[in-house]
């Protein structure tokens, strides 16, 4: 078998199927294909295979007895004689071993090349890049109507941009990009007339700002990111995104890499989000979301990027509301009111949409837009349809009705007969859904929180309708409240017992007591303290404002299960004591809740 046959050899083992249905190419072809651009390495590969086939490795054996010799006068094609005790290998196994040896050699060569990139070589590469940029600009100005004249300079520019990707492995050298003003040239090229050049530059930026590759030297990555933001990178990326045609595969990849640059920079410095939002990014993201295009990776990435931005601050949430963002999010979510998402990516897309909506509703003005856009009706319909969107719809309602700013939504929810949809979930939460990561605990937390918010926000006949629900079906909902009280009370007690032992140890070690208490309170909330507090607030409120028979039922169950009124009062007082300024609870409301606890 000559060298050509060896490289073209394809074992008769059948096709290997991948998840996406593609078939695996022979590994020799993959290696050869990867080396096509480097003729010297391809020639070296041929020589390597010939030598390996002859048993020549280029390494001196440790003992002469182990060195393999060709028979005297034997032709090369006869190969090396094997000893009788040697196990014969199949041709496929031989090729795999040879390829593994070659890959190790290539890897060693790459590592060696990286080590050779010292300061001088990096500077030389950057200066070469600057020359190519200048040359291309010069040729385009000189021959604006004759592409053949400037095409060669464009190809040279593209080549040096690709070559600069080696800098992504050298974050400690990033300061040269700033000092030699290469960052300015990179920013200029984002809007190059040739979209291929723009796409190549964005691809380079994506690799340079990749957090994983810069984890060992984040300082260099932050320096580069600061320079990019100072150069209005957000605005330039948005302008480039506007002109890219995603029906072209390469340009669709450019869109994906542009979003990658933004995500990488937000991971380095979340405060960049405000700058990006003000430079038109939120507007473009919303435009891309509502575009009538098939669902793809870019639409998923668009929604994820918007979700990250909306977590930053109220200014970005306000910008979303002013750009009709609430309506756009509701329109996108409407697709899932009667149909479950298809596949894991659509599930992720749906959850990102819900996360965007929840973040947006943290701003009071957006709650009004949610109400006007009939968001309550859509969420209520999702609850009734019992599809995968149900848990997230419940979470959105929780955000929409919480605090004093949720009063209008609370009243409207009662008007659209939302209580009929909510209480069945409160009474019997759905089972855990692994696809979206929801659990009974999530449903219990959100349904209890919604009822608690409505009790605080409703008045008049609407409040009476809510309280009256607890007398239906022989106080079944009161029984459910008591069940939740004991369930979460026991959980919190178990955590408290563990924390008490830990508190003693930490104080002995000299830890700050205030820090210990803050940390412990958060851990208790995670264990279910929040749901316990909301449950007990509902209990004391309906006992005070509802029928006397409600309180009789509560006291009866407490006696049967050895519970105490004192424990409920203690929980309510702790709840009020830990309310902060960000909890949207006025001093009057605090006093009212404490008064309910005292009367209980």
From TrEMBL:
GO CC annotation: spliceosomal complex
Pfam families with a match to the protein in the record: CTNNBL
Positions of region (Disordered): 1-30
Beta-catenin-like protein 1 N-terminal domain span: 91-202
InterPro entries, per database record: ARM-like, ARM-type_fold, CTNNBL1, CTNNBL1_N
Principal place of residence: nucleus
Swiss-Prot/TrEMBL keywords: Coiled coil, Nucleus, Phosphoprotein, Repeat
A biological process term (GO) from this entry: gene expression
Subcellular location per the Swiss-Prot or TrEMBL entry: Nucleus
Purpose of the protein: Component of the PRP19-CDC5L complex that forms an integral part of the spliceosome and is required for activating pre-mRNA splicing. Participates in AID/AICDA-mediated somatic hypermutation (SHM) and class-switch recombination (CSR), 2 processes resulting in the production of high-affinity, mutated isotype-switched antibodies.
Subunit note: Component of the PRP19-CDC5L splicing complex composed of a core complex comprising a homotetramer of PRPF19, CDC5L, PLRG1 and BCAS2, and at least three less stably associated proteins CTNNBL1, CWC15 and HSPA8. Interacts directly with CWC15 and CDC5L in the complex. Interacts with AICDA; the interaction is important for the antibody diversification activity of AICDA. Interacts with PRPF31 (via its NLS). Interacts (via its N-terminal NLS) with KPNA1 and KPNA2.
Protein name in UniProt: Beta-catenin-like protein 1
Natural source organism: Ciona savignyi
């Amino acid at each position: 078998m000559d060298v050509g046959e060896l490289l073209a050899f394809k074992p008769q083992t059948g096709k290997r199927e991948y998840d996406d249905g593609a078939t695996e190419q022979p590994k020799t072809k993959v290696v050869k294909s990867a080396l096509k651009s480097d003729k010297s390495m391809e020639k070296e590969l041929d020589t390597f295979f010939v030598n390996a086939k002859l048993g020549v490795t280029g390494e001196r054996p440790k003992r002469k007895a182990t060195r393999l010799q060709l028979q005297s006068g034997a032709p090369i094609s006869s190969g090396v004689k094997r000893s009788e005790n040697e196990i014969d290998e199949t041709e496929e196994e031989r090729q795999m071993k040879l390829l593994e040896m070659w890959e190790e050699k290539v890897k060693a060569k790459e590592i060696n090349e990286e080590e050779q990139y010292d300061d001088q070589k990096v500077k030389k590469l950057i200066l070469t890049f600057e020359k190519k940029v200048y040359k291309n600009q010069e040729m385009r100005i000189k021959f604006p109507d004759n592409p053949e004249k400037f095409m060669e300079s464009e190809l040279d520019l593209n080549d040096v941009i690709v070559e600069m990707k080696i800098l992504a492995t050298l974050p400690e050298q990033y300061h040269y990009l700033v000092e030699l003003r290469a960052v300015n040239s990179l920013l200029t090229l984002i809007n190059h007339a040739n979209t291929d050049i723009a796409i190549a530059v964005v691809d380079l930026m994506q690799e340079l700002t990749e957090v994983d590759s810069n984890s060992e030297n984040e300082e260099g990555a932050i320096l580069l990111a600061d320079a990019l933001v100072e150069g209005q990178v957000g605005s330039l990326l948005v302008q480039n995104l506007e002109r890219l045609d995603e029906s072209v595969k390469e340009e669709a990849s450019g869109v994906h890499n542009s979003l990658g640059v933004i995500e990488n920079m937000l991971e380095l410095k979340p405060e960049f989000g405000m700058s990006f939002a003000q430079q038109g990014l939120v507007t473009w993201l919303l435009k891309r979301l509502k575009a009538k295009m098939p669902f793809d990776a870019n639409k998923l990435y668009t929604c994820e990027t918007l979700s990250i931005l909306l977590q930053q601050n109220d200014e970005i949430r306000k910008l979303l509301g002013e750009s009709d963002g609430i309506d756009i999010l509701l329109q996108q979510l409407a697709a899932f009111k009667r149909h479950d998402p298809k596949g894991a990516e659509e599930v992720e897309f749906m959850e990102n949409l819900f996360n965007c909506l929840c973040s947006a509703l943290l701003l009071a003005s957006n709650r009004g837009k949610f109400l006007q856009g009939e968001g309550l009706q859509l969420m209520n319909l999702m609850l009734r349809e019992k599809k995968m969107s149900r848990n997230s719809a419940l979470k959105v309602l929780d955000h929409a009705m919480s605090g004093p700013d949720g009063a209008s939504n609370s009243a409207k929810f009662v008007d659209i007969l939302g209580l009929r949809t909510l209480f069945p979930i409160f009474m019997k939460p759905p089972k855990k859904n692994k696809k979206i990561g929801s659990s009974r605990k999530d449903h219990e937390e959100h349904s209890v929180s919604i009822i608690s918010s409505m009790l605080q926000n409703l008045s008049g006949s609407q409040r009476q309708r809510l309280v009256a629900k607890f007398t239906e079906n022989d106080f079944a909902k009161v029984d459910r409240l008591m069940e939740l009280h004991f369930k979460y009370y026991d959980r919190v007690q178990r955590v408290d017992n563990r924390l008490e032992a830990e508190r003693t140890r930490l104080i002995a070690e000299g830890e700050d007591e205030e820090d210990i208490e803050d940390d412990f309170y958060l851990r208790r909330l995670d264990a279910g303290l929040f749901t316990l507090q909301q449950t007990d607030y509902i209990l004391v409120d309906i006992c005070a404002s509802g029928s006397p028979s409600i309180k009789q039922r509560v006291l009866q169950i407490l006696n049967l299960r050895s519970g105490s009124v004192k424990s409920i009062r203690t929980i309510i007082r702790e709840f009020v004591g830990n309310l902060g300024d960000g909890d949207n609870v006025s001093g009057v409301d605090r006093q009212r809740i404490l008064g309910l606890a005292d009367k209980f």
